[in-house]
Design goal:
The structure holds 2 protein chains of 2 kinds. Chain A is α/β, with parallel strands linked by helices. Chain A folds into 3 domains: about 170 residues, 3-Layer(aba) Sandwich (Rossmann fold), CATH 3.40.50; about 170 residues, TPP-binding domain (Rossmann fold, 3-Layer(aba) Sandwich), CATH 3.40.50; about 180 residues, Rossmann fold (3-Layer(aba) Sandwich), CATH 3.40.50. Chain A has 22 helices and 20 strands. In chain A, helix 18 links the parallel strand 17 and strand 18. Chain B folds into 2 domains: about 80 residues, Alpha-Beta Plaits; about 70 residues, ACT-like. Chain A, domain 2 (Alpha-Beta Plaits), CATH 3.30.70. Chain B contains 5 helices and 9 strands. In chain B, the strands form 2 sheets. In chain B, strands 5, 6, 7, 8 and 9 form a 5-stranded antiparallel beta sheet that branches. A 4-stranded antiparallel beta sheet of chain B has the order 2-3-1-4. Classes of the chains: A alpha/beta, B alpha+beta. Chains A and B meet through loops of A and helix 1 and helix 2 of B.
């Protein structure tokens, strides 16, 4: 029979049993017993952030770059509410997290006690699941169950709210054998007859396309290999969502680049003109589909997803397959081979695609000394690709330019806030990725506005000697806001100019970082080289053309064929319907 | 898909009988803009482990399909059954209807109650409380008639429903 442990000791023991190596957190009154239990052990490393939101983003960066569950520990009240943005971010992007929050003692719950908030109420709809643990004896089981829920099916964040008395009272803890949940058992294996039907449809298609997403990355590294094999045997083109970048090698001849609002012309045209669309682990997000009633009007659609509610949510499909995308692709390949299928004659299809590719929609011309943001990112890519860097971003124009011009050849290397679009995501995510991958080159491609949303995390990197690099694409505007104001609001730049910017070099230096300014095209390579040569954290203030905009673009509410390819003819006033769209 | 005609569907949702589970269900409906026409919930298991929630909702078929899929992925939800789609089932609700009046009005109220097999469960010299049960349409009708003879207030349970036949769902 096991000895009795305090609730706080049970937390640490259960996390240890679950193989947790790192927690991102911030102490406070309602979690002091757990912090005391952490102090007494040497197996779990705790990374002290400077703000709870950053703890969650760091755990996301850790989870996405390593494939493990990210773990967060914060206090009650403001600790929990500060974590809400990160929790919502992880829900939208399907990132497995377990977030432990302190709570006031059970007898004070509901009395508006100091630093009390209704954490389970607040996080009920922004987490995959949540718990308020009212009995120390249940704590260990809940933690194990939470990890199971966080990482199975469609992954997501699970919140465990632990009142302070529950942390102090004692109970027996034993490591459970098989971990599961009595009713939550997501379907992993796809229906075989549906998979056979899908194979027949793919083999018969004249203009097929694979539309792939972050589900393939969540499914694990094998799924990436299976996708590449599926592409090889079928000969079909592949496009990826923002979340799925890296599953197909950037330079692969069958890869059309990212699709959607700022995707490539060839990817969007191919989506519009295909006769068969095979969606693998993506969810027909509005940034991908554009105007729904004009979305890929003449295609049959197959959708593979682990979340039943994603099937037929916005786009009706002809064949929905519920299951893990990796397993479904494996079965597709087996059926393909068993039935002796050969790649169809796609010559005309590839010739159409070559025509769209020739438009060179991501093209730009760097002339003179004013640095184009696209060129800065392209050179950053070229000068770092041999090191296989992990790239995080903030949210805005720089994020889309990074998606367009930084090439990814492997999964788990690209960390960006896709669904929620959280400014301030990139720096803590890069910190989390650096903790998970100590030897890797981790770069946050940032904007000068976004970086200020979690700038305090410079201190976290300094404290743990994490050699994170921040590469700020500084155009002195909230560029994407300004771009939309130009497109839709008569170029009235309402509050989108970044006034009173700090001196980023001095700011970095104040935290013990190296600071570098790049302010001309001719100084770019030298600046990037200096950043790479420094073995500690570096903040680069890369000053770029102030008014460059991010193209190509499908304006909100337009269809794939109505892409704006270049910056001319884009200023104006949108009608009311378009203004109302996000 | 919003322009398709709306359908009324009765859903049975079996859930873990734990704190907050009703808030998860109701919050899903409000967060995603689905309709709730009526909702009932009660513990239905011998060991207090499972509650049964009956929701009457309406929407076009793709929305109903999405509601079921969304409900199904809530962790403490065991099963979601679309009784309307599954076929023959029985729906009932109960109402307590308070009517006040004197003389002929009072006689008429009792006569209507008799026709509807509504039982007086409370009476004073100036009022009745009737208990009426049946399909929603019958309860609606009864209340409409009582409006003419001195209706004071109404309390309704909302719909409970179960599939016909010997099988459990």
């Amino acid at each position: 029979m096991s000895a009795e442990l305090t609730g706080a000791e049970i937390v640490v023991q259960a996390l240890t049993d679950l193989g947790v190596e790192v927690i991102f957190g911030y102490p406070g009154g309602a979690v002091l017993p757990i912090y005391d239990a952490l102090f007494a052990q040497g197996r779990i490393r705790h990374i002290l952030v400077r703000h709870e939101q950053a703890a969650v983003h760091a755990a996301e960066g850790y989870a996405r770059s390593s494939g493990k569950v990210g773990v967060v520990l914060v206090t009650s009240g403001p600790g929990a509410t500060n974590a809400v943005t990160g929790i919502t971010d992880a829900l939208m992007d399907s990132i497995p997290l377990v977030v432990l929050t302190g709570q006031v003692p059970t007898h004070l719950i509901g009395t508006d006690a100091f630093q009390e908030c209704d954490t389970v109420g607040i996080t009920r709809h922004c987490s995959k699941h949540n718990y308020l643990v009212q009995d120390t004896a249940r704590l260990g089981g809940v933690i194990h169950e939470a990890f199971y829920i966080a990482r199975s099916g469609r992954p997501g964040p699970v919140v465990i709210d632990i009142p302070k008395d529950v942390q102090i009272l004692k109970a027996r803890y034993e490591k459970p054998g098989v971990i599961g949940h009595k009713t939550y058992k997501p379907q992993v294996k796809g229906n075989l007859s549906s998979i056979e039907a899908a194979v027949e449809m793919i083999a018969a298609a004249e203009r097929p396309i694979f539309y792939t997403g972050g589900g393939i990355i969540n499914s694990g590294p094998v799924a990436t290999q299976l996708l590449r094999e599926l592409a090889r045997v079928t000969g079909a083109p592949v496009t990826s969502t923002l979340m799925g970048l890296g599953t197909m090698p950037n330079e692969h001849p069958q890869f059309l680049g990212m699709l959607g609002m700022h995707g490539s012309y060839e990817a969007n045209m191919a989506m519009n003109r295909c006769d068969l669309m095979v969606c693998l682990g993506a969810r027909f997000d509005d940034r991908v589909t554009g105007r729904l009633d004009a979305f890929s009007p003449n295609s049959k659609k197959i959708h593979v997803d682990i979340d039943r509610s994603s099937l037929n949510k916005t786009v009706r499909v002809d064949l929905g397959i519920l299951g893990d995308v990796g397993g479904v692709m494996e079965d597709m390949l087996k059926v393909w081979k068993a039935r002796g299928k050969k790649a169809g004659d796609l010559e005309q299809w590839w010739s159409d695609i070559a025509g769209w590719r020739a438009r060179d929609s991501f093209g730009f011309e760097q002339k003179g000394e004013t640095l184009l943001p696209q060129h800065a990112i392209k050179r950053l890519y070229e000068m770092t690709k041999a090191q296989k860097p992990i790239i995080s971003t903030e949210v805005g124009q720089h994020q889309m330019w990074a998606a367009q011009h930084f090439g990814f050849d492997a999964p788990n290397k690209w960390l960006t806030s896709g669904g929620l679009g959280t400014m301030g995501y990139g720096l803590p995510a890069a910190i989390g990725a650096q903790v998970a991958n100590p030897g890797a080159l981790c770069i946050d491609i940032a904007g000068e506005a976004s970086i200020q949303m979690n700038i305090q995390e410079l201190g976290t990197a300094s404290q743990y000697n994490l050699p994170v690099k921040i590469f700020i694409i500084n155009n002195q505007y909230m560029g994407m806001v300004r771009q939309w104001q130009e497109l839709n609001h008569g170029s009235r730049y309402s509050h989108s100019y970044s006034e009173s910017l700090p001196d980023f070099v001095k700011l970095g230096e104040a935290y013990g970082w190296k600071g570098i300014v790049i302010d001309s095209a001719s100084g770019l390579d030298e600046g990037i080289a200096a950043m790479l040569a420094h073995d500690g954290p570096v903040i680069v203030d890369c000053r770029v053309s102030k008014l460059a905009n991010c193209f190509p673009m499908i304006p909100s509410g337009a269809s794939h064929v109505d892409m704006i390819l270049h910056a001319d003819e884009t200023r104006g006033e949108a009608d009311e319907d378009a203004k109302a769209l996000v | 898909m919003k322009h398709l005609p709306s359908e009324r569907h009765t859903l049975s949702i079996l859930v873990d009988n734990e704190a907050g589970v009703l808030a998860r269900i109701v919050g899903l409906f409000s967060a995603r803009g689905y309709n709730i026409d009526s909702l009932t919930v009660a513990d239905v298991s011998g060991d207090h482990a499972v509650s049964r929630i009956t929701v009457v909702t309406n929407g076009p078929p793709p929305v109903i399909e999405q509601i079921i899929a969304q409900l199904d992925r809530i962790v403490p939800v065991h099963r979601v059954l679309d009784l309307t789609a599954l076929g023959p089932h029985v729906e009932r609700e109960m109402a307590l209807v308070k009517v006040a009046g004197k003389g002929a009005q009072r006689d008429e109220a009792l006569r209507i109650a008799d026709i509807f097999r509504a039982r007086p469960v409370d009476t004073t010299t100036g009022s009745f409380v009737f208990e009426v049960s049946g399909p929603t349409s019958k309860v609606d009708q009864f209340i409409a008639l009582m409006r003419e003879v001195g209706l004071v207030e109404v309390a309704r349970t909302g719909v409970v429903a179960i599939a016909r036949g010997a099988e459990a769902v």
